[in-house]
């Protein structure tokens, strides 16, 4: 599947798969970023894309992101809408720093994959669903 991509800087590393890893694709910080503990920043990822029709993209941290940079992604998972495809629609990573940290331009801070939209849902209201209760939070126990 082909995706049209615009890079915001000429010397940026192009997006690619990491050999033998998975089909998630790493994204890089497009800037040098210095953050103090407790600071919030939208870190630009240096790319905009025209996603395939019927798809959205999901952006999550890498498993090493917190260990390497001391940041967490404030929305936990970023959803890139198909309509976010303008020339200025640069992807970003909303970061909260838990310690003073430095992220360098080109550092791989998160990863994404594309996902097909869910089918369109319409809600049908009812007083009874007519099934047995499954039980609440933690109801199947610990072991
Ligand atoms: O982590 C993220 C989350 C969102 N976006 C971009 C893509 C997305 O399509 C757009 C808007 O995001 P969203 O719809 O989640 O935010 P909103 O606050 O609801 O914005 P809007 O008012 O545009 O709907 O911002 C990112 O680049 N990274």
TrEMBL record:
GO terms assigned for molecular function: dUTP diphosphatase activity; magnesium ion binding
Gene3D superfamilies on file: 2.70.40.10
Enzyme Commission number(s) from the entry: 3.6.1.23
A Pfam entry, by short name: dUTPase
Keywords: Hydrolase, Nucleotide metabolism
Catalyses which reaction(s): dUTP + H2O = dUMP + diphosphate + H(+)
GO biological process: dUMP biosynthetic process; dUTP catabolic process
Residue span(s) of domain dUTPase-like: 26-139
Record-stated family: Belongs to the dUTPase family.
Cited PANTHER family: DEOXYURIDINE 5'-TRIPHOSPHATE NUCLEOTIDOHYDROLASE
Name used for this protein in its record: dUTP diphosphatase
Organism annotation: Brotaphodocola catenula
């Amino acid at each position: 599947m082909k995706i049209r991509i615009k890079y915001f800087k000429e010397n940026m590393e192009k997006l690619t798969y990491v050999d033998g890893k998975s089909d998630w694709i790493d994204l890089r910080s497009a800037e040098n970023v210095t953050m103090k503990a407790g600071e919030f920043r939208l870190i630009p990822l240096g790319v905009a894309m025209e996603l395939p029709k019927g798809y959205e993209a999901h952006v999550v941290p890498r498993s090493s992101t917190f260990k390497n940079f001391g940041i967490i992604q404030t929305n936990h998972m970023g959803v890139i809408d198909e309509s976010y495809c303008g020339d200025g629609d640069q992807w970003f990573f909303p970061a909260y720093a838990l310690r003073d940290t430095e992220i360098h331009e080109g550092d791989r801070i998160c990863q994404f994959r594309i996902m097909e939209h869910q089918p369109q849902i319409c809600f049908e209201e009812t007083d009874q669903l007519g099934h047995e209760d499954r039980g609440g939070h933690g109801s199947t126990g610990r072991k």
